[in-house]
Automatic annotation (TrEMBL):
Keywords: ATP-binding, Nucleotide-binding. The keyword Magnesium does not apply. InterPro entries: ATPase_AAA_core, P-loop_NTPase. GO terms for molecular function: ATP binding; ATP hydrolysis activity. This is 21937_t:CDS:1. Residues 74-140 form the ATPase AAA-type core domain.
Length: 233
């Protein structure tokens, strides 16, 4: 969920394949996020075929051709003329050409149609099974995932709950989690609101006792000079 803490790292070490993720990061890690599509470089007049060659397409021709077929891209496309959805598909091909041991994906299938997304997920699952690779996928779109993941991480207020062996459809399970989270957030908001109101009313023991001056000062017109003195400095 938004604001759950996916990007926040606790004060502890993060290791990937037994190595420090910040000091000694292992090789063959690929990250695919939404930022790439907004890069001015990939919005210029560049042939897709040139990008493919630069990213290892000639070194891995079979993977390149399979991904081109799955994501339905044309190497003759020019990047300044393609749509956002086509640009996203080019990004995925470029990012997946070279074999990876760990793939980090952040909402990169949002622009894909149903068939392309399904074929891509099947390709990725086959990759993990054939090469024993790992994928960490952050997404709000659960349609079609079904039994695709082996583990589900439910992040709630910076705490990660690891789930596995799901028996219910994934979308239903996640919907239940989100509704529970929403109820808790609303209860917390109500408690904060009530606490703030109580503080304003002085119900926490900070209210000063009411004096005669408080009564008189509320209506100077009614009491006039009988209780009030006026002078100039």
């Amino acid at each position: 969920a938004n604001g759950a803490g996916k990007r926040m790292v606790h004060n502890c070490k993060v290791k990937v394949f037994g190595k420090d993720a910040f000091k000694d990061a292992p090789k063959n890690i690929t990250y695919l996020g939404t930022e790439w599509a907004n890069n001015p470089i990939v919005r210029g007049d560049v042939l897709v075929s040139h990008l493919l060659s630069n990213m290892g397409g000639d070194k891995y021709p079979e993977r390149r051709d399979e991904l081109i077929n799955i994501l339905d891209i044309d190497p003759k496309w020019r990047m300044h003329q393609v749509s956002d959805g086509e640009r996203r598909r080019v990004q995925l091909v470029l990012g997946l050409i070279q074999p990876w041991n760990l793939l980090l994906m952040d909402e990169v299938t949002v622009d894909l149609d149903v068939l392309v997304r399904s074929d891509l997920l099947n390709f990725l699952k086959n990759e993990t099974e054939a090469r024993k690779a790992t994928i960490v996928y952050a997404t709000h779109i659960f349609d079609g995932l079904g039994d695709w993941p082996s583990h589900i991480a439910h992040i709630k207020q910076l705490i990660t709950y690891l789930r596995r062996n799901m028996v219910s459809p994934l979308l239903k399970v996640v919907e239940q989690w989100l509704r529970e989270d929403l109820r808790e957030l609303r209860l917390q908001a109500e408690e904060r609101k009530k606490l703030s109101q109580d503080q304003d009313k002085g119900l926490l023991g900070n209210e000063k006792p009411r004096t005669k001056w408080d009564d008189l000062s509320e209506n100077v017109t009614a009491y006039g000079d009988k209780y009030y003195n006026y002078w100039n400095h």
